[in-house]
Amino acid sequence: SFAGHQVSHWISTYQESNAEPPLIQTAIDDFGPVVSLPGAEEQPQDAAKICVDLTAGAEPNELNSGLSKVARFVNIYRQAGAEPVRCQIIVVIHGGATSIGLENDAYRELFGGADNPNLGLIKDLHDAGVRFVVCGQSMNAKDYPADRLAPQVELAVSALSANVNRQAAGYAMISLP
Fold first, then answer.
1. Contacts of residue 173, Cβ cutoff 8 Å, sequence gap at least 6
2. Residue 164 above 70 pLDDT?
3. Residue 172 bridge partners (DSSP)
């Protein structure tokens, strides 16, 4: 098709020139850059529902890489396609990622004075409409204080129940181990 030809031409033009494609960031500054492809055959669909199952941890002073991927998802739906579309995203936090939902004081107490490096991006994502829930079972197993979550993070009985509830509501599941 003509649109497919446009995308192929665009990609080959950048490959031939060895130039980097222009990256854009729309909803989330400094995270999740995407390439705008308004002529691509497969476009983001309006009213998509995505449940991100986030389990991978990071060093206490490092940003969880899964959050950057979530920022990319937001930017894809906001600007990478032919037109911006609405999308519902929920991030279910558990396993090694559980600590990212803690407010700064609790995080500092648990990790030797290190600030929670995830809070700024969690706030930006939340402000862009992303919902965050943390597994209560993981919080208990790790002995993290469930009453000391960041204001943007909600407590779920379990990651299992949160994921099953989202699947029952028609969300596409994306695992970020």
1. 51, 53, 163, 166, 167
2. yes
3. 50
* Residue 149 burial (10 A CB sphere; 0-12, 13-18, 19+): buried
Spatial separation of the C-alpha atoms in residues 121 and 147, rounded to whole Å: 21
pLDDT bracket for residue 21 (50, 70, 90): low
In three-state secondary structure terms, 6 is helix
**What would the pLDDT profile of 116-130 be if each residue is shown by its tens digit?**
999 999 999 999 999
- The residue with tokens 């906001």 is 78
- Give the bridge partners for 88, in sequence order: 49
The per-residue DSSP string of 15-29 comes to HHHTPPPPEE--SST
